[in-house]
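[#protein-structures] MJ: dropping Acetyltransferase here for a structure pass
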Amino acid sequence: MDFKKASEVSKGIIVDLVNKTFADYEVPVNWTLTSFELDIRENSISLDDSYIVFEDEKPIGFSLVSIRGARGRIDAFGFLKEYRLKGYGSELLYYTLEKMKWKGISKVTLEVVDTETSAKKFYAKHGFKEKRVLESFIRYLEKTDEIKFGYSIVDHKWIHDRAVEALHYIGRKPNWQREPKTLDLSYDRYQMEKITSKGFSIGYVVWGMTSKGAFIVDVAPLVDETKYEDIVKDLLNRFADLKFKDVTMVSLPEDDPLNKILKKFNFNVFLKQVEMEKRIH
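AK: finished. C-alpha cells for Acetyltransferase:
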C-alpha cells in the first residue's frame, strides 16, 4: 500500500472513491465536485493532512481529516468493499493519528451510524470512546398559525457572532458541523436570516432546501432561551407557508437544548449516530 496526501490526488478521483466506498453504507455519500469543494471549506478539511491509499496505483481507501487549532476530526474514512477486513483500516488509522499527533492535535472526533456495530468496535479498539448520540429528525408540515416574526437576510459574520453568543447564553452544545466556525465558513451555501419581533432581533436561522423539502442547519434565540419554542413554532409555520412538505435537521446532539425542542414539536428521529472521541496528546 502507498499513502498519498489528498492534496496530491485529483479531487475527481477522491469524489469517485468516496462515493463508491459508501454506496453500500446505511448513509451513502453522493458528493459532486462542487459539494466536495463546499464541504472542504465548511468543515475545515485539510487535504494536506488527509490521505488516499493506493494499491498497484489503484485508489482503494481514504482518510479525510478536518483540523481547527488543536482539534481534529475524521470527516470520512473507509475502503472499497473488496479491501475491507484485511487490516488496511487499522494501518491507515494509525498512520493518520500519528500524523495528527505530530501536528499538535490533542483531540480527535468522528461520527458513526449507531447501527454500524462493527465500525463502533473498530474505533473502540483503537482508543475512541463514545461521547454522545447525534439524532437526525424529520417533521411533516402543516400550517397551524399565522407567521408572527420577521425574517431578513444577514451575512455569515452576523450569524457567526450570534452563534457564539448562543454558546454562552443559551447553553448550546453543537457538534463540528454546527459550530459557529462552520456556520461562518458556509457562506453562500445556505439561507442566513435574522429573526425579529416588533423591530427587535430575537434569533437567527440558517436553512436550505432540496427537491423534497426544507432543512434546518441551525436555529437559536439570541439571549432569551424561553423564546426557543416560539421561534421553532413560527419557523414551522413559515416553511408550511412556503409550501414545503417536510423539514429535516440532521446530526443534532442529544445534549443540545434544540434537541428537546424538536421532540416537543413532534419531530421524528430517522437516524442515530454516535460521536466518538480520542485524546492523542
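MJ: nice. The chain has two domains: 2-105, 137-272.
AK: one more thing. The first strand starts at residue 2 and ends at 5.
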